[in-house]
Amino acid sequence: MSVDPSCKEEAERFRLEGKSHYERNEFEEAIQKYIQAGELYRSCGSEEWEAKMWGNVALMHMKLNQPTISLEYANRAVEMSPLNSKAYYRRAQALEHVNEYVGQC
Predict the structure, then answer these.
(1) 43-63 per-position pLDDT tens digit
(2) How far apart are alpha carbons 25 and 19 in whole angstroms?
(3) Which one, of 38, 83, 81, lies nearest residue 56 by Cα?
């Protein structure tokens, strides 16, 4: 399926806004922009880029010390893009922190 260029441009705008928020440590704002980008990439038919956005959301939740939520998004990224090594890395990071938390209980 080919991706509509105008659709991808709008998704890219949200992605870049998310990146800008991330660089300013505005993680909650970045989450919202990456989610918007991911949903738009989905409607554009770009599953690869949608999966990348879920990986970014996973990272933002790790930055907010929310590993359980991070794990949900990392799993989504892995399921959508099983060859994406960064998605597996995000999942491993989240699992490590979830296991640390469980070990403290």
Answers:
(1) 999 999 999 999 999 999 999
(2) 10
(3) 38
Which sequence spans correspond to the domains of the chain? 5-104
Tell how many helices (H) and how many strands (E) occur in the chain.
Answer: 5, 0
CATH topology of domain 5-104: 1.25.40
CA atoms of 96 and 76, how far apart (whole Å): 17
Dihedral sign from CA coordinates of 5, 38, 28, 99: negative
Q: pTM of the predicted model, to two decimals?
A: 0.90
The secondary structure of the chain in percent helix, strand, coil, rounded to multiples of 5, reads 85, 0, 15
